[in-house]
Hints:
Strand order of the largest sheet: 6-7-8-3-9-10
Radius of gyration: 19 Å
Strand content: 25-35%
Helix content: 25-40%
Largest sheet: 6 strands, mixed
Number of helices: 10
Number of domains: 2
CATH architecture of the largest domain: 3-Layer(aba) Sandwich
Amino acid sequence: MLKMNNIEVVYNEVILVLKGISLEVPEFGVVALLGANGAGKSTTLKAITGILKTQNGELKEGSIEFMGKPIHKLDADKIVRLGITMVPEGRRVFDDLTVMENLLIGAHTRSDRSLLKKDLEMIYSYFPILATRKDQFSIFLSGGEQQMLVIGRALMSRPKLMMLDELSLGLAPLLVKEIFNILKMINLEQRTAILLIEQNARIALSFSQYGYIMENGKIVLDGPCKDLMENEDVKEFYLGITDEAKKKSYAEVKHYKRRKRWLS
């Protein structure tokens, strides 16, 4: 469905952030993109959605294809119309609009207005709390409710591919588990492919089918998630488990020497 081929992205004409990224998301698939802060994960999503130019970024090399057609030169609104939507980091709701108004904004690119009521009911079936809050201003929602709202808003565009950036950030573990369970249902029932950036590597790899690991603007490792979870480097530096099955603080991991087989 989605193919990124040797993408290079530069900010402010001098800062090279992505250094030849290539990745794929299959139709109806779920893919995780992991890496430390500053690795280039969010920039990857911005390149796909066409919003780089709004942040002084430029795609210098490579191509991006969606459903077999190049999209890397298209404007963001045209990319949304093709079926790609993004849930950005930080639960960005429109504070002064109600829950329902926020959801309807997600459908602004659609021409089939007669189906909006049906889709609202679909969103409420996945997130019942939004139905009880539909006339409430979104600024008064809890953090978890706001996260549900931005996911619902993204679904209102009827995406073929939904990309999520740091979904669990700032949320309680039980709520994170609930939201991921709902996303699994959305993937299965709506046949929506998902590309996920997530700080919680354990839940991301458990949720996804295939994973990529980024380091300094490059993909350094990829494979089926069940294999990545057994990889000794991934266990140590992303899951926080040493060979002695002792947990290690992520905060203590600043630099590390990767095992040679990563580069083979």
